[in-house]
Amino acid sequence: MASIDQALPLGFRWASVRAGIKASGRPDVAVAVADKPAAAAAMFTSNQVKAAPLQVDAEHLRATGGYVRAVLVNAGNANCATGAQGLAAARESCTQLATCLGVAAEEVFPSSTGIIGVPLPVDKLTAALPGAVAGLSDSSDAAEAFATAIMTTDTRVKIAQSEVSVGHRPVRIFGCCKGAGMIGPQLIPHATMLVYLFTDLQASPAELQTMLATAVETSFHSISVDGDTSTNDTVLLFASGASGVIYDQAQIGEQQAFRDALGHVCDTLAHAIIDDGEGVTHVVRLLVSGADDDVAAKRVARSVANSPLCKTAWSSADPNWGRILAAAGYAGVRFDPAQVSIHIGGLPVFERGARSAAIDEAAVHRRMLDREYEIAIDLGTGPGVCRFLACDLTVEYVHINADYST
Amino acid sequence: MASIDQALPLGFRWASVRAGIKASGRPDVAVAVADKPAAAAAMFTSNQVKAAPLQVDAEHLRATGGYVRAVLVNAGNANCATGAQGLAAARESCTQLATCLGVAAEEVFPSSTGIIGVPLPVDKLTAALPGAVAGLSDSSDAAEAFATAIMTTDTRVKIAQSEVSVGHRPVRIFGCCKGAGMIGPQLIPHATMLVYLFTDLQASPAELQTMLATAVETSFHSISVDGDTSTNDTVLLFASGASGVIYDQAQIGEQQAFRDALGHVCDTLAHAIIDDGEGVTHVVRLLVSGADDDVAAKRVARSVANSPLCKTAWSSADPNWGRILAAAGYAGVRFDPAQVSIHIGGLPVFERGARSAAIDEAAVHRRMLDREYEIAIDLGTGPGVCRFLACDLTVEYVHINADYST
């Protein structure tokens, strides 16, 4: 289990409480508060169906010009596809937390994850808020409690940290997330990714948005468990400024060091999501090169990552490069099969359009028994490159997601 | 098991033989011959990786202007990703069959299905051709033998027939196909769809191409087992003209009747492929309506049909409309969730943006225990409609495709 072993960013406090929304009775409401209004940048699911809190988040960020005082997360109910009632519930929970904190309701950023289509038990949620506020702390235990309360069927807490020096002063990043999961098997569940990134850098919402978009592209936008894009996916970057380090007054190299650190935190969290994916027994690092451009490379990677035939082959360490080639071929990207080469775990299986003369299937199979390995697909056409994290499809995935009883 | 119970189109003969390409020793080479050069139209996979016979088919159709004398299919080896050697093998097999028949090599239309990436044992194939030619017959048994020899792991033969009257004369259609399957589990297999449609109508290659494209759009382009587009998919429509009925001299209504019959044959075969899909226990008829246009409706249908979360829910008759809504939402199509309604098996589950007040989950679950049922998704926006055949994702699918041992 990950634990917090570096200094946390200054200017934040965290807490969690049991509101009785999760059937398990575990902590299910998480609150994070900035001492002063903190600059924020957020990215939301591209799904046409967006949960109620995501709609409220967008309204609130517009109203405040990108400043947030508090994050309010509940697990156990996604508050999605709940109509006007769901929107009202999300707004009510913000109002109640804002009252407890003495801030404006628009300064609260709500999130929900869990059952879809079931009304949010807003009374339970709001009844728990005074206790959460009373428990706010800047301790490691409090931050870890926040990261734990947002979990649904995640089997482990997902945390990443980094610290960089800017003008000889430390700037810290603390990130946590939850991966795909299922709860309430007799109801209507849905997996959701929630990511919260805290830093004590001082930066504007626009600066944060730019750096967040870059970091997300190569981390959370480059992973797939099953290709099912959630209705609730949210990534929030939240900067208290309490380090005293002002981003736009830092040296170019130090700005880059901060962005690299943010990227590292996002990469670590994205890897943790795949590694803890439903039923996953193998993590596959896809490296697609030689595409016309990076966008084309990512299309090929995503096609391979979501191919049921590739994913089932990986589950049994089957060196089935034909399925990889075929999935690349239907990605909607132009390439010449005669120029394609594929390596699995560093071993050649397909070279320039034909089975590798040096192929050793037994050796490739042994390499694929590792928990994690790389599959490199060189299209041999252009400069486009993509790294993407994929995983296998197992019987356990089907069991987890098909477990329904009347 | 389907059997041939109507008159076959005139002007064709069929045969099959054992060439020893299938490890099982079952018949694995199928030949169909037209008495005279027959107008043909073909459609091939859009996969960037196309098997060698598909490349030869395209060359041959260009060389003859769309006329074919013989179809040569082998099962047990896909002759895909086999480089220059694979192209030479496909050409050699055409030359040998052409010699046996006394026709030009360009008049032969080759197909292969089975293991990908392994050299085609062309000597075995060509050695079997004289026996196949000697066995050619216009009998029902011969046509059924053709349909049987093209199978790989299909559990049943897939045949459809129709007959329409044009100018008081009968015109017949006989179609057969093979669905997804896996063979040679220690090698590199790949599923492939092959469809052959025979008719004794007289029509030009261009007329056939137009009617084939229309029929394929609503049949083979509107199904998915796992979303994995093969490297070998082929649909061939092959018209001997032996009925004496000339398409462009028929009445408009009778032309339409023929196209309807062709569509019916294609629909029947497409349904047979899904019904015999790997590990399938439920066939789901998706009806998407209210999209901006038919293209948008099909994108939504395909997204739902390929969603692992929807497919696993269907395997356990789980009335999980949230997953259906979410999969529609990430199809890349614009719609307003507040206007969406979903019915499962005719029962309301989601109406205009919220859970149906009349929902009866137990009743919906019971309806979903049927082998086949409909899910209707009304986006409530525009006139676009699509019907699409989907299926569930079961543990058996994973077992079939993950069954690898060193």
Give an overview in words.
The structure is a homodimer of 406-residue chains. Chain A has 406 residues and is of the alpha+beta class. Chain A folds into two domains: 12-275, L-amino peptidase D-ALA esterase/amidase, CATH 3.60.70.12; 283-402, ArgJ beta chain, C-terminal domain (Ubiquitin-like (UB roll)). Chain A contains twelve helices and 14 strands. In chain A, strands 1, 2, 3, 4, 5, 6, 7 and 8 form an eight-stranded mixed beta sheet that branches. In chain A, strands 12-11-10-13-9-14 form a six-stranded mixed beta sheet. Chain A is globular, with a radius of gyration of 22 Å. The first copy, chain A, starts with 11 loop residues before the first strand and ends with a helix. The interface between A and B is large, with 69 and 70 residues.
